[in-house]
Amino acid sequence: MEPTPELSPHHAYPDHWEADVVLRDGGTARIRPITTDDAERLVSFYEQVSDESKYYRFFAPYPRLSDRDVHRFTHHDYVDRVGLAVTIGGEFIGTVRFDRINEQGRPASAPADEAEVAFLVQDAHQGRGVASALLEHIAAVARERGIRRFAAEVLPANNKMIKVFRDAGYTQQRSFEDGSVHLTLDLEPTEKSLAVQRGREQRAEARSVQRLLAPGSVAVIGTGRTPGGVGRTVLRNLLAAGFTGRTYAVNRAFDEGLATLDGVPAHRSLGEIDEQVDLAVIAVPAHRVPEAVADCGEHGVQGLVVLSAGYAERGSAGRELQRELVRQARSYGMRIIGPNAFGIINTAESVRLNASLAPESPARGRIGLFTQSGAIGIALLSGLHRRGAGLSSFISAGNRADVSGNDFLQYSFEDPDTDVALLYLESLGNPRKFTRLARRTAAVKPVVVVKGARHSGTNPPGHAVPVSRIPDATVSALMRQAGVIRVDTVTEMVDAGLLLAGQPLPAGPRVAILGNSESLGLLTYDACLAEGLRPRPPRDLTTAASPQDFRDALAEALADGTCDAVIVTAIPWVGENGEAETGDGEVLAAALRGAAAGGPAKPVAVVHVEIGGLAEALAAASSTAAPRTRPTTLAGRPAAAPGAPTGAAPATATAPTGPGTEAPAETAGTTETAETAETAETAETAETEAAAPPARPGRIPAYPAAERAVRAMAEAVKYAQWRRQAATPGKVPEFLDETTDEPGAAALIDTLLGTAPDPRGRPLTHDEARELLGRYGIPVRPTLPAPDPEAAVAAAARLGYPVALKTTAPHLRHRADLGGVRLDLTDEDALRRAYAEVTELLGKPAELLPVVQSMAPRGVDTVVRASIDAAAGAVLSFGLAGAPSELLGDTAHRLVPATDRDAAELIRSIKAAPVLFGWRGSAPVDTPALEELLLRLSRLVDDHPEVVSVALEPVVVAPQGLTVLGATVRLAPPPPRGDLGPRRLPNY
Description:
- Helices cover about 30% and strands about 20% of the residues.
- It is of the alpha/beta class and about 1000 residues long.
- Helix 14 crosses helix 20 (about 705-725).
- The protein contains 28 helices and 41 strands.
- Strand 7 and strand 8 (about 180-185) form a beta hairpin.
- It is flat and about 105 Å long.
């Protein structure tokens, strides 16, 4: 809205405080500053508040606001006096304000850093988390304005408000004075407050998706009067799937006498429907969508699926239409899937929803599927159907203007009907959040991702999200760090999903291979080696093997303690007349399922060549499917999910209140309790006291090629290893020794940036970089300029022989192959000769910028870097120095802050890692020293976000110790960290 406060320019309306938030029940609301235009809204809001709530707010009966009150509550300077309101449909449902005070509790201005805060929430909206959301946002505003503490006076009977403060996670003090509770909150964010915030975000966003997928009633707006068309197709699919709720057909063009259409009530508008509609599927032209959205909002619809096209995929004008669509829907508290969506599906028996253009609803299964492309969604649905796989839920988000892959992860984490989450993504609107959510979800169930548009450097048409500049290889490495199974194609995603949904996770990489074809067994063996598995020699059962032979061999392999997984290969039997017999697929499938059911819980995959009916029979539901309920620990948390690696310590997560489960009853006035405030971030590492039941094999996946089966198994092996490691995560060392000086580094950075830093930042000189890095125990070997031979000789005398002569011109830096680096110069004569040769070969000293540096011990040249991407965050990188590593892209990446385990994995994950560990008889280098360097650099950029890039090149790692020979550092004002602020939905 356009405010008209009578304020000086210094106190202009802070539009960056405006935010859309998801409330506890999944609905949305708008938080914004209160302005002078809100007088009537404030009065109307106050009239709808109960006398009891008014008494709690003012400590006395206060039936109405005086004109003076209204003026005071709507006129703010946005510095010492601030008011925020929560709105739905443009009307207030809650307010909060703070007034800066001095030590005596009187009105004050800066530098006073305390403020008195007060809340008021409409009774009809209490219990939705309104006050908790307001506290997050008003606290962020206060910190921005230099306020460090909130003071509040609360009546003892006002349990709801006391709980809001108590459960927020801030450091607080409480006392009882003059008949009221006096609370003081320190507004500095803490680990607990951040965990509380993220826990509430997770539950709210999961609930918002659950409301879309499990509505009690659906209206299809734009249902055609004649067969065909998008709206009529969706209506037909809803009915064909057997939707358990109520269905309505809506079209303003219906004749007044039309009562039903395809057997469901037909209406010209939502206002004609006697009950509230939960979900609206909009299938009208784009220019009519705003009218339909307004009709939905005014009649209490909870969510929208917008199939209509003509938005951001059409260019800048369409992008603005899309933004307006999101703003309009959120103003009514509704979330959107789309626009340009394919639809949604929920196969739960209690719902049976197919609000999509898919002509046939998939079978019920344990896989959740999210796509940002309708065409890919169609392909995936078809592929899963052909393979006999079922789905728990399906969302095709189209332009993903609102509901995104992050929301789907929030939902999948809680959904008891989903064991595996598959996502096809073309853009990541919030990579930091995606990584965080994926890590938490992957700790309890697999997350498989295909990333489209990997190399274009731009987002696909319609995806109005920030473009991340980090390379795709980095994105892939960060996903792996978060436990995400990143695959390249949708075929690989289906292959991996089928194995993970139907089979237990392998305990290791040892694979047994058996079958009736020696050649197919050898192909499988080779594929296992190529994927880093440890296959046993294939067991050839010969072409004469019967189904019983397969059963006996599989049972024996599963019972063998030296194997972790089994791949069965099968070709058709050849009859006496020389023709292939393909009719025994069901018999073989029964034999394999029987062996898998009776043996230890290990994954089994089948590679077959044209055996009719085998794949379908293997995919049939089995009575030995993995248990889907998780036992709870003594602490009330669930133990490891079904399918956890055999013998592994269980990864844990909080006990979520998922769809279909009963939430604990609220006590009077409860907003969020301390128990529900826990999040997966804090629970992921909690030790459980009850072990998960052994996972039993369910559907056995079948593959038409050995490479596909092996690749899926390899992904399961890597994921299982990640799960085992995630159960006992690494630690971020503190380095609390004399070599780390965080305050000194902060003061130095402030000095180097100055009082008015350039937003583009500035590179540090060699000496400045050495000083800053030295504060964190990272010594950089000094270099001295050598503008002429005499200066070079003097520098060498100062440093001591032997020395190196290096050119530092940008076009020659780190290019020893061009002859600009001369090493092991042992005396003055050698130095002078080298100087003459370099200048004669490459140019004048003024162009080459030569320097002299003392020689380091011999070792392996490596490169260590850290950089900050505005979207993904700080990234730590490692690789060997030199052109081969650059050409092959042999660089590993991890998110900052890196743990000790991350540092160890970083070094060992590059392809050239054997060079560090004694390759071809060379001496192994000091990898502990290298790991410590990585951790120190990670700590530096994590402590000081102004350090936007660091490159240590080369770092020579010797058998004992290492030497940093070159360092470049760039400082800049820190980029904003949206993931650390209060909850808010993105606005693209």
